[in-house]
């Protein structure tokens, strides 16, 4: 059965690495879904890695190898900051567009977990999109081109068991500042090819991207997202991995069902 199922391609958020999605990946694997994840180039990078650079990495090193080399469909899951580069990476790679181009595989759907929704393509960056200020938990350090969070647990891991929260906090890294101050690439979540195939999971107790901000982004998107809620803080993948897995499996089955109907 796994040979026929799509890959979950999990794109970590800012400062996160692929290990922070290990519990979630394990549960998805146990449910029979292949998983691939990798850390974004901007994580821990003092060099000038842009949001567009991250998007190219997601496209060329995470999505296309699964589509073209492994010949599996993809369900794209992005978290927090990665909603920006991940959705840009999905442009032109929907199943419908790839089928029209004679390809066998494509992206069945995009899922955003407490993720940033910006249309992009207008020259504005993430900081501008949020009113020109960094969130209070982020401390910019221009001399090193890094964004630092001096105490990562309150905004990111406040509802995670203490020992797990501690190790996740320690294994997170400073984020390259340029990823937040460079123009956001054009997203694909509002493309016609993804109509009915984009979902947003709201984290109702989020201290990093608060629930009202998530709703504001949804309201401003102009798109009818499939919306699900999970009672957790920002890092639902470690705070509520079982509940999050079930939400993802339900969404995946919906996307797979849509693909079957279209064929």
Question: Descriptors for this entry?
Answer:
single chain; 11 helices; 263 residues; globular; alpha/beta
Explain what this protein looks like in three dimensions.
The chain is of the alpha/beta class. It has helices at residues 22-30, 51-69, 83-89, 95-100, 126-129, 153-156, 162-171, 178-181, 211-221, 236-239, 241-262; strands spanning 7-11, 35-37, 74-79, 107-113, 139-141, 146-148, 175-176, 198-203, 226-230. A 6-stranded parallel sheet has the order 2-1-3-4-8-9, with helices on both faces. It has a 3-stranded antiparallel sheet with strand order 5-6-7. A hairpin with a 4-residue loop joins strand 5 (139-141) and strand 6. Residues 8-244 form the AB hydrolase-1 domain.
